[in-house]
Amino acid sequence: xxxxxxxxFVFADQLDRLTMKADTARKGAPMDxxxxxxxxxxxxxxxxxxxxxxxxxxxxxxxxLGMLTTGGLALANELKSDHGKRIFLDMKLFDIPATIEAAxxxxxxxxxxxxxxxxxxxxxxxxxxxxxxxxxxxxITVLTSLDRADLDENLIRAGTVAEIAxxxxxxxxxxxxDGVIASPHEAAAIRTLPxxxxxxxxxxxxxPEGADxxxxxxxxxxxxxxxxxxxxxxVGRPVxxxxxxxxxxxxxxxxxx
Length: 257
What we know:
The chain is an alpha/beta fold. It has eleven helices and eight strands. The termini are far apart.
């Protein structure tokens, strides 16, 4: 069965007012894609406007579940197809294998770079079966907003958060995940796993020095996260809530080792 091509959406009036240029990396020095900016804003038009303000500073964006019903996939297609950006679709999928495989195959038509699923091995295997060649499947270990008390409430087995995250990473990678999502506090330990050789570690829970932690409980600075072994860091509120988002993003990039 042939998979239908991803629909093409254009926000013409808004795009006319933005200064974004397609594939800006070709017009200057390559952008550092270790920083992924989370477009955690209410809708696709706000996301497109934020990306326009970031202009040549950011090449990689995360679109999460909160924007799914307000144009998130349209925005992903717009940024990818028309502006040459990389896209991380953070869906944290969890379901029976047949449903995961079908959902992942459908999302692969949007030419997504990274897609998240829960780190349970049956989910990872099904996602890889549907992902195709180009979309990387990243497995969730333990959310960075959770601590041991939260795990107790959810009936998760005994052990420290770091131990649980490491065990989930090991099993997800063994099941075929292309990488994992983990707190920077667990990145160094995950990097030592034999299964982690050549795999990606992407760390949310990253905050610049002095920034409000919000609902994040296991936090490091951008430089610390990269030094701990992260390939990419995900930063949202410290960028999109800053008076000058582009300056905030550039300051984070300048701090990376």
